[in-house]
Amino acid sequence: MENVRKIVLAYSGGLDTSVILRWLIEEYGAEVVAFVADLGQGENLEVIREKAIRTGASKVYVEDLREEFVRDFVFAALKANALYEGMYLMGTSLARPLIAKKQIEIALREGADAVAHGATGKGNDQVRFELTYYALKPDIRVIAPWREWNLRSRKDLIDYAKKHGIDVPVTPEKPYSCDRNIFHTSYEGGILEDPWVEPSDDMFEMTVSPEKAPDAPTYVDIDFEKGVPVRLDGREFSPVDLLYRLNEIGGKNGVGRVDMVENRFVGIKSRGVYETPGGTILHIAHRAVESITMDREVMHLRDMLVPKFAELIYYGFWYSPEMEMLRAAIEESQKNVTGTARLKIYKGNVYVVGRRSPFSLYSKSLATFEEDKVFNQRDATGFIRLNALRLSIRKLLEG
User: Fold this and answer.
1) Residue 342 in contact with residue 324, Cβ under 8 Å?
2) Whether 16 is catalytic
């Protein structure tokens, strides 16, 4: 098609993006550069690189984005305690703007006319990719094959692949779709489209079921500095290594499974099943340190912002002015969130059993129920009467 000479494709090596790579070459007559993002999905990326070349890519970029993903995206969401609709830690939502950002960087480096992705016209990912593209390069041409071609089913894609000599691995088809990175694994579609059907335990990749978890609890201490986890049991780790270690601990203890029906940005309700073992542990630990270090009104105000912050991530507005404003407020709220949380992890549950901080606002002398000489309990009389004044006036007026 007109005016498209070179396209940068977000490529995973799966059936969809492999077909898309060849389809772009055939349909647009363009050179296609494949970009593979290493987000800790646990696949052999050299095999994926070789497959992209065999399928027709003129060049393949494979970039390790794990450190940037955890440091700048996962930990940014952690500081806000961000949960979409109160449940989802957003492992997929956080990954897409980073992939799209790197894709635009490669497009600029390569002098490409367009970028392409493999997201469908029903889901959230198309929005997340494209909002990032346009935020970073407003004049970029975006190609979304699922909104253009006449291929409508897995069989159509397999037939196209065979016709064009694209490798289609002969493996049993999973009755659901799966997306994985270092932060989580998500499952949707197929058998999961019936929200009454319980997923089989053998579906999960990162966690054992709580029933199969050890009978003895695991204790961990996690140190935070300004809202960022930096040490585990007194040992300093890089962001990626810390998350890998907590994934291992959480996974063997059955932590981090979520089954929910969520509201997609496009207006469709969708059932998703997620496992986020390390992220769940960090979320609970972070709140524990906040509980003794954050001023009450700052915490309550920040908590009012969390649903909006999570919604912006889920919808794909990472690079937006409103997100910049919210992130600045959240960063300010974290300046004294330094301390240690002690957790007891047992059969799918994470319990806070201790917390301490050099910036602790907790005062035992004020909180005690024993005799004290700090708090004058008679002061509470006037405090209550002043707060009851408007309630009393309202009742008197009713009479």
Assistant:
1) no
2) yes
Strand pairing category for 114-116 and 141-143 = parallel
Catalytic site residue from 49, 66, 96, 257: 96
Q: Which of 93, 113, 125, 355 does the annotation list as catalytic?
A: 125
Phi, psi of 50 (to 5 degrees): -65, -40
- Catalytic pick among 64, 154, 177, 363: 177
Fold classified for 177-294+336-356 = Argininosuccinate synthetase, chain A, domain 2 (3.90.1260)
Q: What stretches of the chain adopt beta strand conformation (E)?
A: 6-10, 31-38, 59-64, 114-116, 141-143, 177-180, 185-188, 218-225, 228-232, 235-236, 257-263, 269-275, 339-346, 349-356
Contact (Cβ atoms closer than 8 angstroms) between residue 95 and residue 89 = no
The CATH homologous superfamily for domain 6-163 is HUPs (3.40.50.620)
pLDDT band of 378, cuts 50, 70, 90 = confident
**pLDDT in the model for residue 376:** 81
Distance CA 327, CA 287 (A): 17
Distances in Å between the Cα of 351 and the Cα atoms of 23, 233, 234, 283, 344 are 51, 16, 19, 12, 5
Concatenated DSSP letters for 289-303? HHHHHS-HHHHHHHH
Length of the chain as a residue count: 399
d(CA 226, CA 281): 17
* 370 band by pLDDT with thresholds 50, 70 and 90: low
Q: Which sequence spans correspond to the domains of the chain?
A: 6-163, 177-294+336-356
Strand pairing of 114-116 and 59-64? unpaired
Is 96 a catalytic site residue? yes
User: Hey, is 93 helix, strand or coil?
Assistant: helix
Question: pTM of the predicted model, to two decimals?
Answer: 0.93
